[in-house]
């Protein structure tokens, strides 16, 4: 799903109840593709790989995750 067209991912996001999944599905294809390559296609601890991936993202991507996923949970 993450490697699908933006239109398909946005449609899937609108049906998701998971804030993190919804956020990922609304990101551009470049962000989604980098996530797949750095996290899903790698062996190792998925949580650690996710954290490493997020730390390497540009500030706008990290800030949108904070704003859309983390802050609503606070």
Summarize the structure in words:
- This protein has 5 helices and no strands.
- Helix 1 packs antiparallel against helix 2 and helix 3 packs across helix 4.
- It is mostly helical and 74 residues long.
Short summary:
70% of the residues lie in helices and 0% in strands.
Beta fraction of the residues?
Answer: under 5%
Uncertain runs: none
Distance between the termini: 29 Å
Mean pLDDT across residues: 97
In helices, the fraction of residues equals over 70%
Indicate the radius of gyration in whole angstroms. Answer: 12 Å
Helix and strand arrangement:
Elements: H1 6-15, H2 19-26, H3 29-40, H4 46-55, H5 59-70
Looking at this protein, list some descriptive labels.
74 residues, mainly alpha
């Amino acid at each position: 799903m993450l490697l699908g067209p933006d239109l398909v991912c946005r449609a899937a996001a609108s049906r998701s109840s998971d804030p993190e999944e919804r956020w990922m599905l609304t990101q551009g294809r470049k962000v989604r593709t980098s996530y797949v390559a750095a996290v899903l296609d790698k062996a190792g601890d998925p949580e650690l790989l996710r954290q490493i991936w997020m730390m390497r993202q540009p500030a706008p991507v990290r800030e949108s995750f904070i704003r859309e996923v983390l802050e609503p949970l606070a």
